[in-house]
Specification:
It is built from 4 helices and no strands. By secondary structure, it is mainly α. It has a domain at 3-87. It is elongated and about 75 Å long. The chain crosses the membrane at residues 7-25, 37-55, 67-88. Pfam families: DUF805.
């Protein structure tokens, strides 16, 4: 996952979670149990989405998904997310998790590719 895509997906997830953190206080949820259930569902989605986004970005940086554990550490976690996942560029070329999403490090297709007159393809 490219940095641009990481931020474009992470910011909406953050915007969804902020109202839940601000308004789903213990006093408010005690008065309305439905709000408590709804906030748990939203926070569950936010947790899952953030975990998936972070692992995809770690894979672009050629790091194992287990590095996501660092994101849960106080003080170090947010700094790690901002620097490692949000600022640093991904691995150039193919790494152990797949090709470079920017297409760097691959050879461009040759000009005569697909113009082979000795072969024919029939789609049924």
């Amino acid at each position: 996952m490219r940095r641009r895509d990481y931020w474009l997906y992470s910011l909406p997830v953050l915007l969804v979670s902020l109202p839940v953190f601000l308004y789903a206080t213990p006093e408010a949820t005690a008065a309305n149990p439905l709000l408590d259930i709804l906030s748990l569902v939203i926070l569950g989605f936010v947790f899952w989405a953030s975990l998936a986004l972070n692992v995809k970005r770690l894979h672009d940086r050629n790091k194992s998904g287990w590095w996501v554990i660092v994101t849960f550490l106080p003080v170090i976690g947010p700094v790690f997310v901002i620097v490692e996942l949000g600022i640093l560029d991904g691995t150039k070329g193919t790494n152990q998790f797949g090709p470079d999403p920017k297409g760097r490090g691959t050879t461009p297709p040759s000009q005569d590719q697909g113009n082979d007159k000795d072969s024919i393809t029939i789609d049924i």
